Q: What sequence folds into this?
């Protein structure tokens, strides 16, 4: 009896807490529908009059397409390179016979404990001397290199659970190692690959530090940096527009999150299993 | 069969690209980093060997020590306020119905999937002195005296930024804890509940000890995350007012990319990575030393 009441109270507390938790998000959405003068009114009130002008105005003064396209290029590029290289590497460490495979695995795992912030200065210079600073590749390659560690570790763990019989059957049928890998192995590890895609997407799409330091030219900046410059250039009366830009630029990640929430939570927590 | 797993060419083709890319962009830069730290370097040219001058400069700089102190504050706030809240929420969540669980995970996890830029801008609005929700809420409940220019006051700037940062990741840490709790076989604590143990007793005596490994893991990533804090500070206060809310990485960025003292920046980077390794090592060896098997 007492337990049931407690449970009811806790339930109510959690529901209220959940709404309170995302109150800042709700407030931003509301501001994006308010008239400029009304922003100064109570934050807890709905707009007196719902205004939709903020959205077209925001898109007119903020080059959303440019930053969005850049973000897509960075994310897709990083996902492709990391997954292709990472799955091949994880496979040859998990399956093939070579002396240094455990050394190679530990070496790549080093990336898990070297934060990108530490090498940003030499990385900045390296990109310049390779003449890829301020190109798309100049961000995709470092992103992929840093993403490889976790990707290799997770795929390696997954390969160890895949029985060898599948490949052995393929070899009997006259498949060579490449055919076996691309036609038999990759389809089997698809669930793990899907988790990796979501994980790398979330990390790359929201990455700020490297993009902030390494992209010097507007035309190569991804969404988070473009947003920052837009916000810095706006004054208080334009909060409605700021709110609108925030909503528009959050839609892609929110959609991905709503669609794959389990996958994202699993992916982000899967690291815990590795330790 | 063995020719399949011993194929040298395939081995090379499968392993070399990863090793090359990883070495070039992750491992190799550590070496020039050490070299630069002994030189006067403006970002383009080496302007002469200066020995340990850069190290002396950093170790005698009050801004550097203040930024390190700020990082310590953020770590303490997140470890002793943020993590206990996440853990408590995870424990409560475990007792709730699937519907509530799903709802609460969704809402609390949402900030972690949004861009830092959006989160920072949102909290700038929350802390805004005139129309910000925080000051307005304080007036509404009659605590108008507590109103402040949150981000412009040297005393409240860093805690406000730390709060925004904490807010973004409490849900993520909660889900991490929750995943750990789920992996504990239910039979362990069902037995205790049948024996009449309450919520706190069950958790303190049974769940927490079994959760040590997860606690340790979350502790490591949250401490390292606090140490590398840069984004929220950069966007919410720009290290200010003055240099009141700078963190170590902000100081690195400021010295290297604003003052063009790349040698000094490299010294900060080296001290930073040493500190990170030491702290990770300490947590791994001092926290939860007995391994639990279940």
A:
């Amino acid at each position: 009896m007492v337990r049931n009441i407690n449970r009811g109270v806790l339930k109510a507390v959690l529901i209220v807490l959940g709404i309170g938790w995302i109150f800042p998000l709700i407030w931003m959405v509301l501001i994006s529908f308010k008239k400029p003068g009304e922003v100064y009114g109570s934050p807890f009130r709905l707009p007196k009059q719902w205004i939709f002008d903020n959205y077209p105005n925001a898109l007119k003064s903020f080059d959303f397409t440019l930053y969005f396209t850049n973000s897509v290029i960075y994310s897709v590029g990083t996902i492709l390179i990391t997954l292709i290289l990472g799955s091949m590497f994880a496979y040859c460490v998990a399956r093939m016979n070579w002396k240094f495979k455990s050394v190679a695995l530990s070496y790549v795992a080093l990336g898990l404990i070297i934060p990108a912030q530490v090498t940003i200065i030499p990385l900045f210079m390296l990109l310049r001397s390779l003449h890829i600073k301020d190109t798309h590749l100049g961000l995709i390659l470092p992103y992929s290199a840093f993403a490889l560690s976790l990707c290799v570790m997770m795929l390696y763990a997954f390969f160890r659970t895949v029985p060898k019989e599948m490949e052995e059957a393929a070899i009997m049928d006259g498949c060579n190692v490449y055919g076996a890998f691309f036609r038999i192995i990759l389809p089997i590890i698809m669930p793990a690959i899907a988790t990796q895609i979501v994980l790398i997407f979330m990390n790359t799409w929201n990455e700020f530090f490297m993009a902030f330091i390494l992209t010097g030219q507007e035309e190569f900046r991804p969404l988070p940096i473009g947003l920052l410059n837009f916000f810095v250039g706006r004054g208080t009366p334009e909060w409605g527009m700021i709110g609108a830009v925030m909503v528009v630029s959050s839609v892609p990640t929110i959609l991905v999150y709503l669609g794959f929430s389990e996958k994202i939570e699993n992916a982000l927590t899967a690291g815990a299993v590795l330790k | 069969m063995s020719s399949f797993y011993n194929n040298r060419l395939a081995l090379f083709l499968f392993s070399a690209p990863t090793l090359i890319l990883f070495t070039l962009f992750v491992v190799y830069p550590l070496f020039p980093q050490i070299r630069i730290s002994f030189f006067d370097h403006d970002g383009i040219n080496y302007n002469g060997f200066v020995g340990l001058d850069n190290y002396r400069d950093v170790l005698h700089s009050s801004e550097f020590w203040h930024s390190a102190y700020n990082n310590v504050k953020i770590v303490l706030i997140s470890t002793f306020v943020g993590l206990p809240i996440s853990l408590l929420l995870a424990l409560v969540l475990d007792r709730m119905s699937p519907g509530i669980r799903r709802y609460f995970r969704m809402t609390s996890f949402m900030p972690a999937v949004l861009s830092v830029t959006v989160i920072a801008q949102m909290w700038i609005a929350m802390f805004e002195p005139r129309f910000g929700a925080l000051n307005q809420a304080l007036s509404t409940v009659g605590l108008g005296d507590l109103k402040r220019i949150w981000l412009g006051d040297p005393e409240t700037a860093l805690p406000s930024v730390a709060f925004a940062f904490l807010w973004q990741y409490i849900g993520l840490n909660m889900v991490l804890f929750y995943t750990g709790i789920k992996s504990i076989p239910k039979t362990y604590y069902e037995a205790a509940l049948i024996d009449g143990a309450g919520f706190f007793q069950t958790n303190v005596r049974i769940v927490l000890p079994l959760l040590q490994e997860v606690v340790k893991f979350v502790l490591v990533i949250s401490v390292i995350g606090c140490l590398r804090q840069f984004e929220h500070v950069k966007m919410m206060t720009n290290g200010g007012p003055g240099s009141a809310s700078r963190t170590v990485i902000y100081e690195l960025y400021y010295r290297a990319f604003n003052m063009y003292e790349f040698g000094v920046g490299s010294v900060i980077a080296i001290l930073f990575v040493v500190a990170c390794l030491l702290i990770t090592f300490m947590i791994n060896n001092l926290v939860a030393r007995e391994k639990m098997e279940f």
Summary: The domain at 55-286 of chain B is CATH 1.10.3720.10 (MetI-like fold). Chain B touches chain A through 96 residues (CB under 8 Å). The mean pLDDT of chain B is 87. Chain B has 15 helices and two strands.
